[in-house]
Model the fold of this input.
Amino acid sequence: MTKKKEEASKNPFKNTDEEVIDEKQTIEEITEENENPENKDETAKLKADYEALNNQYIRLAADFDNFRKRQAQERESLISYGAQDAMKKLIEVLDNFDRAKAAIEKVDDVNAVKQSFEVLYNQMFDNLSNLGLEVIKAQGEEFDPNFHEAVMNTPTSEYPENHVIMELQKGYKLGDKVLRAALVNVATAES
Done:
């Protein structure tokens, strides 16, 4: 036995630099031996599959990024065009206010002014209703903190407890979203 082998047999956990190099060469030799034509074909197939999946992933990532950007643009345009439609309808009412203002200067009849005002009010409310605006019902309704804001409480026996006695300011909602709660006076039990 050589001196190195004798030392290795005494202390099996101690490796010399030469033994580490020998082990590396052995691994390389084994790898070279296993590189037969079948393994090369399999490796090439795996590389091709990897490339195909990687390209597919890159395309999907790019498609998703484009989709996200398109959605952001559509959202911005909906907001912009939605406001434009609302403004166009309100401009029509503004034009009628201008006509009414000019007509009021020449009119002595109060009833004609009242009728003009009613026409303008109805046109404005109809345009806003077409955009989705709704009046929150309050008078005589049961108090609902989601739609009503109590600014007064009045003890009374004329109305059921926790019902709206009087609407002080109208409330409005757009779809399910409350734009402004109705300011109300709520009935409480008399003491």
